[in-house]
């Protein structure tokens, strides 16, 4: 998320910067405070950002580092007519008030000239201490210490204010608000973009993009969901009400002006005119667990015909394999994204069989990031971010069928079976079969 937002703000992530996986603190080289503030106006992953004045693996190293920090960079924030306060934050350890005061008093050598104001200071300084990630083995002294000037907080409050629990219209698979904002940030959604979701469902992913000023639209094969009809998904409610639809959700957050429309359509049969139409495609395809994976069929196929009703508006439908869903999605993104536009989607994975080779590829799309969210001990889903780097040509349409890599992706089709199987149950069966 941070890497995507840095590029959106005009910055660049330096590969030389150290990423400590086992620490909640991360040192970034950002060229300006303005860019740092722009970053924090979007991120839901980062809590706060500070201008780093000193760093060390012990208190002595921290103090030495602070004494080496240029005084001319400190002075604008330490003037006699200014007010300030010093916070202390310890990760994985709780300090008494006396211990905190002792650590703050140890910074007396810094040239503070202003007055302390605990309620409304002009400048806030933080001591940050990292005691590791293991709550069962907390060291006496921190592994890392930092001191810096607070610049801005992230947008963590969006997770609560956009909570699905408070939303008018939800479904069985409505996307969690936090993940929805992370996806919009991975997609580098910005004001006046056009963002599309081909599996729009209840429109949870449209809300986060609209919050960032993008115009949003989507399609879904389910007539009832698009029109807000049929049975409700809430536990204590039988039928959906008149204000339960995608437009009402956006209206709830004051974002209706960004809503273009949602159409009943089959994502396997694109309805759009040729051309690069979308700045970002952000979606969560169905995995076949809670919602069926289906597409419109034809009378020639051996399929089940269903009469029109409020329960199911699709006349004829057939199975839509996961491997086909992902390849249709990548092909669509390659054709309809603008150059530099991004595709962000979730890919379900059976962990014992996972390798990077099963990530779907397309010659027009470059893989930007691949992040894991655990679902169970044996399943997870990967947040895949891809960027369009090559103009789509007709010969690219079925290129994935030619490169010999299509077969590994067929494993996605049995994800539902593997999701419910469980590793222990599977191993026991294999052992029993081997004994026969």
Automatic annotation (TrEMBL):
<dbReference type="GO" id="GO:0160102">
    <property type="term" value="F:tRNA (guanine(10)-N2)-methyltransferase activity"/>
</dbReference>
<comment type="function">
    <text>Catalytic subunit of the TRMT11-TRM112 methyltransferase complex, that specifically mediates the S-adenosyl-L-methionine-dependent N(2)-methylation of guanosine nucleotide at position 10 (m2G10) in tRNAs. This is one of the major tRNA (guanine-N(2))-methyltransferases.</text>
</comment>
<dbReference type="InterPro" id="IPR016691">
    <property type="entry name" value="TRMT11"/>
</dbReference>
<dbReference type="GO" id="GO:0008033">
    <property type="term" value="P:tRNA processing"/>
</dbReference>
<comment type="subunit">
    <text>Part of the heterodimeric TRMT11-TRM112 methyltransferase complex; this complex forms an active tRNA methyltransferase, where TRMT112 acts as an activator of the catalytic subunit TRMT11.</text>
</comment>
<dbReference type="InterPro" id="IPR002052">
    <property type="entry name" value="DNA_methylase_N6_adenine_CS"/>
</dbReference>
<keyword id="KW-0489">Methyltransferase</keyword>
<keyword id="KW-0949">S-adenosyl-L-methionine</keyword>
<feature type="domain" description="Ribosomal RNA large subunit methyltransferase K/L-like methyltransferase">
    <location>
        <begin position="166"/>
        <end position="295"/>
    </location>
</feature>
<feature type="domain" description="tRNA (guanine(10)-N(2))-methyltransferase TRMT11 N-terminal">
    <location>
        <begin position="21"/>
        <end position="156"/>
    </location>
</feature>
<dbReference type="InterPro" id="IPR029063">
    <property type="entry name" value="SAM-dependent_MTases_sf"/>
</dbReference>
<dbReference type="Pfam" id="PF25904">
    <property type="entry name" value="Tmrp11_N"/>
</dbReference>
<dbReference type="GO" id="GO:0005737">
    <property type="term" value="C:cytoplasm"/>
</dbReference>
<keyword id="KW-0808">Transferase</keyword>
<dbReference type="InterPro" id="IPR059073">
    <property type="entry name" value="TRMT11_N"/>
</dbReference>
<dbReference type="InterPro" id="IPR000241">
    <property type="entry name" value="RlmKL-like_Mtase"/>
</dbReference>
<dbReference type="Pfam" id="PF01170">
    <property type="entry name" value="UPF0020"/>
</dbReference>
<dbReference type="GO" id="GO:0043527">
    <property type="term" value="C:tRNA methyltransferase complex"/>
</dbReference>
<keyword id="KW-0694">RNA-binding</keyword>
<keyword id="KW-0963">Cytoplasm</keyword>
<keyword id="KW-0820">tRNA-binding</keyword>
<comment type="similarity">
    <text>Belongs to the class I-like SAM-binding methyltransferase superfamily. TRM11 methyltransferase family.</text>
</comment>
<protein>
    <recommendedName>
        <fullName>tRNA (guanine(10)-N(2))-methyltransferase TRMT11</fullName>
        <ecNumber>2.1.1.214</ecNumber>
    </recommendedName>
</protein>
<dbReference type="GO" id="GO:0032259">
    <property type="term" value="P:methylation"/>
</dbReference>
<keyword id="KW-0819">tRNA processing</keyword>
<dbReference type="GO" id="GO:0000049">
    <property type="term" value="F:tRNA binding"/>
</dbReference>
